[in-house]
Amino acid sequence: MDRAGVGKVCLALPGVTLDHPFGDDHDAYKVGGKMFVMVGGGGSISFKVSDIAYEVLTESGHARPAPYMARNKWVNLPQIDDWADDELAEHLVIAHGIVAAKLTRKARAALGL
């Protein structure tokens, strides 16, 4: 998967917006104003995972703790294409679900979630 592929997967999810808070070379995908995926200018990708997935992915070496976001259970892949497309897409959908579930009931209803 490439940067455009990540965008296609993320923007197909309900209530998702694309923002560039760190400059045009970084894509931040948000749901309800909360970021769940970040694509860096150098081709890296970081995303939110569950507590269990964080432990499994970082301990097995499949991903590394995301810089500045590891305490919030985010992982990082140095290159977007480090994983198979379907595996990465599944994690992006899960990241969306984790963040969306933490939104208020009112915010979820306004987004159609």
UniProtKB/TrEMBL annotation:
Q: What is this protein called?
A: MmcQ/YjbR family DNA-binding protein
